[in-house]
Every structure is written in structure tokens, then in C-alpha cells.
Amino acid sequence: MLVTDVARGSASSGAAGAGAGRAVQGFTWLLLYVLVAVTPLVIALSANRPPARDFWLETSVGLGFVGLSMMGLQFAVVGRFSAINAPFGLDAVLQYHRSISFVALAFILAHPVIIVIRRPELLELLNPITATWNARFGLMSLWGLVLLIATSVWRKRLRLPYEWWRLLHGVLAVVIVVTALVHIGRVGYYVDGAVKRGLWILMSVVFVGLLVNIRVITPIRLLRRPWKVVSVEPERGGVWSLTIAPDGHDGIRFLPGQFGWIRVDRSPFSLLENPFSFSSSADRTDAVEFGIAEAGDFTSTLGTIAPGTRVHLDGPYGVFSYERNEGPAFVFIAGGIGISPILSMLRTMADRGDRRPVLLIYANPSWDEVAFRDELDTLCGRLDLQVVHVVETDDGLPAARERFDVGFVDADVLDRRLPAALGGGWRRARYFICGPPPMMDAVLPLLIERGVPGAYVDHERFDII
Amino acid sequence: MRHLYTNRLVYLMAVILFVAVLIFAAISLQSGRVDDAPAACAVAPGEVAPRGSCGSDSGASIDTWWGGR
User: What is the ipTM of this complex?
Assistant: First the structure.
């Protein structure tokens, strides 16, 4: 199973063209993001400029404006727009959403801090009791943002149920943006004149529109395309295979490795939805299957779901797919339920008669907990696939040990298994890693240290909510 | 590696936007000179300007960019 240059062929050149297209698309979105974020500054500098003040006071105002704009843009970032997610992947977009909120907080916090440093007599405006109403609205926005970020960062520590957190998150987001806009309108320093007021109103309408799209338009769209449960089958290791079929429509098309958000037996307006990877072949048209591990309130009830139960599916999302990163060979590294998107890729490759070499390194606590292990054996007969199981304990392992390593996916496993499976071409293979965060954090740098180009490595984190 | 690139992008975005704010502040000083403002508004902080002379605010003083109570 050696990787040859012939095998690299046209698939790679086609993928390179698609990659360049996505890069242009991504750059365009980032440019648009910057332009929208600085729009309040442009509005402020347009006609009817007010008298100049101190440089740092103007800086503080600018930081407040941009911070607000970034908060409004968060509605677009989390809006699950296919065009926005296409070049980056929804998981990376959500990661950006989380990280950029700290930048927005820093900008918005700096706004009053700089003002008070430059004009200490205004310190009383930070006291909600003595502050003017103008300042109170600003304070409401600021403390709302602090509360929003604190409840997001420490949601699990605070034991906030996901559904309640999501409701709070949405309400606080609206409160932050609305009170900040009221603050700006009441202060009135940079919003004089019909043009400026018109532009501010337009920005506000766009922000509200984005929210309406998330909470109203998308659920209505889902309501018109219901799904129903076909079966819920137990697998090894506390994993369930949930199969759903379209009810009165033609279903969806997805890339192998993508995921969808599902609501089982709930309204599409419900805030409780869960992201799960498709595990079925992308070429299957009658139904889609998810591999789901029992890990929370919803997933622990999977066994009680009856066939025929109504499901709403929002998707597909994600870019963790070999179709987005084509190569002459593939190395899939899965941990636990991280096998789900990889199984989808393997099943799709098998359905398409793809004979490119594949190495699957699959880590689990024990041999008894290896989900889909029988099907993987079957897939070895349909694909040029080698499977290496890495288990923490050798309890119950079969006598023939050549397919097994005991321990974790570490440097030793990679150094032995990669050249053995793919020959000298293992650095040219495309790597897909999906598993628990500690496993991915350990494996990623090991691959880079061994000379695998970063662009050849993709990974999917399933802690996106 | 998308996640690594995402973190770098956030840092880059923070720098770009902060520089944009600094440019905004510099332009504000250049183009929004006190001389360009209505004469009645060209008062020192704390001094009283005529009502309605400083932008849309009710205009108790130049400090009213914080607004009235």
C-alpha cells in the first residue's frame, strides 16, 4: 500500500483549484467583516463632524463603536450562513465567535476606562446609582457583555443547563446591542444629522434582521422539511446509531465527515439542539445515520426514542471531509466517538470504489468498547484500508496482536505505523483527526514535528457547544 | 490546522481594528477641529454653551457628550 505520484494525479490539482477559490472567498468575508466593524467610525467621520476632543477620548469612543459593531456582527457569525461557513467550517467560525468576543470585551471595557483616566471627575458615571441615564445604558451593555462571557466560559462550572444558557445567551446578546445603541443615541455626539442617524438605524436593523433569521426564519424553513426516526441501534462502547429519513421531501446532500444539528421530538423553535456527525455514506439518499455517544442529558435518552418520532435537521455543516482536502492517501486518527465522521468518509469511499490507501488509527479505552469494529473489518475488504486499534488495556484483545497497540496514540505508535502502512509517502498523505481534545492536542504537534505540512492536517473538535 | 489559524486570525483582527480606531482618533483631531465647530460650541470643558449649539444635545455644557441626567 505505498503512495505513488501517479495516485496523486488530478485529484490533487482539482483540490488545489477549489482550495484557492475558498481562500479568495474567505479573504472576502474577512475584508467585509473589517469594513462592517469600522463602519461606525466612517459614519462618525462623515458630515456634521462635532468639535474635536482629546486624542485618547476619541480613541475610547472609537473602541466603543468598534466593540459594538463586533457584537452586532456576532449575529452574522453564528447565523449558520452556508456562504460564510463554506471557506472556514462552522467549528472554526464558532471558535472565532468565542475568541473575538474577548477582543470585543476588551474594546468595550477600554471605552469607559480611558474616559475615566483622562477625566477622573467622570468616575461617578460608573456608579449606576449616581450615573446619568446615558451612562446607565452604557453600563448595562458593558455588564451584560461581562455576564454573557462569564456564563459562557464557566457554563459547566456554574451547572447551567444548555437550554437555559442558550436562552440567557440570546437575551443578553440583544440587551447588549440594544442598550449600547440607546447609549450612543442618547449621548448623541456622533449621530447628528439625518444621514448619520439613517446609517445607525440601518446598522441596527441589520443586526435585528440577523437575529430574526436565526430565531425565526431558519426554524420556519426546518418546519417545512421534517424528518422521522427510522431506527435507533445500540453499538459497542455506549454508542448509538440513529437513522432518520426525510418525511415528504428529498432530504439533504452532505460531504462525508460533515455534521448536522438535530432536534428530536421538539419544535424547530426549541433552543435545545445538538450537533452530531453523519456516520452514513454521503451517497446514501434514503436516510442519514448519526453515530452518537451517550454523554449528556439528551444522548442518555437515545435508547427510548421510538421509530417514527419527528426530527428537525439543520445542516449540513463543517469542512472536515476528505473531499475538501484531497490527497494520494489518507490517515484517519479517531478517538472514541470521533470515529463517526471518519466512518462516513470510509463508507463513502467504499461506495465509490475509491482504492487510495487509507490508514485508520482508532483509539479506545478497551477492545470491548470499540464501536463499529465489525464493520471496519468488512470495510477492509472493500477499501485499501489498514486499521490499527490503540487501546488503553490489553484485556480481551485477540491473540493476533499485529493490529493492536496498547497505550495511547503517541510518537512511538506514529513512528512505527505510518511508514509501515504508507511507505515513504506518509508525509504526503492527508491527515484527519477527530477525538477527545487531549488526544488531538497530543497528536497534532507530533505530526508537525515529523514533517507533515500543516495544510495536510485537519481536525474536528466536537466540543463546539 | 484550521483552529490554529483561527486563533492567529483573531489576534490579527484585534490589531487591525485597534489601528483603525487610532486612525479614527487621529482623523477626528485633524478634521473636527474646534475652529470648524459652531462658534458657540468652542468652549472649554466645563464651560456653558448655549442650548442646542453643540450638536443635537440639549446643551448644558461641552460635557454634555455624556448627556444630561
Answer: 0.81
